[in-house]
Amino acid sequence: MSSAETIANLVLDRLDISRVDDLLLLKEIVYARGAILREHPLEGAEACLLVGPGRPIITVSSSPLISHHRRRFSIAHELGHLEMHRGTGLLINCTKGDIQDMPNDTGVDTEQEANQFASAFLLPARFVEKPFVENEPSFDIISEWAMRLDTSLTATSFRFTRFTPEPVAVVYSVRGNIQYFQPSEGFAELGVFPDVKNPVGSNTDARRLFNGMDIKGEWREVRALEWFRDNRDAFDKTDVIREWSIHMPSYEAVLSLLWVHKPLGEIDDW
Ligand SMILES: [Zn+2]
């Protein structure tokens, strides 16, 4: 467990959060942790934390361009700075680039720590671990919890990979190119990698969505080689995996769940 996750759990314990609904009250949570939450126009930042002589102040941008979920994530990110880094500076300004709901475990950068805190705080293990372990992977279970916890589908999907025992990866593609992926532990052991920085395969649902086609929101079988970099040791040419893709037009993005539902590389047919 990362230290950010441990601290997020501790803070949730101190706040005595045992019901999902309690997590929706971020303003009250910030106050209960000794700070004040404000919404203001901010220049060059999405959120900031000011620790002065009085109560620390978390300010989140009031820009209408920022989505409700993004704003919640930014508040939790600043709360993370308050809980973990308050000794390191009086003013922390966080830009759009600093606040990322895509996990990145490399390094000990304070921005990454604040992001890990936000994810663990808004999607706590105490609520999501059991349903994410017990249920088969699907956007149904992910969107159900995104709705209940008032978080984005993207942040919830990435969090899903942390708990599912199935070999699943979440892939985020923008304008037709794979930008980022996050594997579950079971997926990471397979030695297959979505082809980051390259176009999504031409026979994938992700490609169909980028091409403006309508597809059914459900699992579909697709050749593994449509998604993975050539790796003859890890899979065969005819191997299939499951793909479920969802269009996020406001980000020009597609979010895909990939599920290796049966073993790869058993026939060696290259
Ligand atoms: Zn930050």
Produce the secondary structure layout.
Blueprint: H1 3-14, H2 26-32, E1 36-40, E2 47-50, E3 57-61, H3 68-85, E4 91-94, H4 110-122, H5 125-134, H6 139-149, H7 153-163, E5 168-174, E6 177-183, H8 185-188, H9 205-210, E7 220-223, E8 240-248, E9 253-259
Parallel strand pairs: 1-3
Antiparallel strand pairs: 2-3, 2-4, 5-6, 5-9, 7-8, 8-9
Helix pairs in contact: 1-4, 3-4, 6-7
The structure holds zinc ion.
Zinc ion binds next to helix 3, strand 4 and helix 4.
Strand content: 15-25%
Number of domains: 2
Mean pLDDT: 93
Gross geometry:
elongated
The count of strands amounts to 9
Determine Rg (CA atoms, Å): 20 Å
Which percent bin holds the helix content?
Answer: 25-40%
Show unreliable segments.
none
The name CATH uses for the topology of the largest domain is Arc Repressor Mutant, subunit A
**CATH hierarchy: architecture of the largest domain:** Orthogonal Bundle
Element-level helix/strand string: HHEEEHEHHHHEEHHEEE
User: Ends: how far apart?
Assistant: 40 Å
Structural class: alpha+beta
Bound small molecules, by name, code or SMILES, are:
zinc ion
Give me the side-by-side strand order of the main sheet.
Answer: 6-5-9-8-7
CATH class of the largest domain: Mainly Alpha
- Could you describe the largest sheet, including whether it forms a barrel? 5 strands, antiparallel
Q: Number of helical segments?
A: 9
Description of the molecule:
- Strands 6-5-9-8-7 form a five-stranded antiparallel sheet.
- A hairpin with a 2-residue loop joins β5 and β6.
- It has nine helices and nine strands.
- The longest helix has 18 residues.
- The protein is α+β, with helices and mostly antiparallel strands and 270 residues long.
- The radius of gyration is 20 Å and the shape is elongated.
- The model has no long low-confidence stretch (mean pLDDT 93).
- The chain folds into two domains: 120 residues, Orthogonal Bundle (Arc Repressor Mutant, subunit A); 94 residues, Beta-Lactamase.
- Zinc ion binds next to α3, β4 and α4.
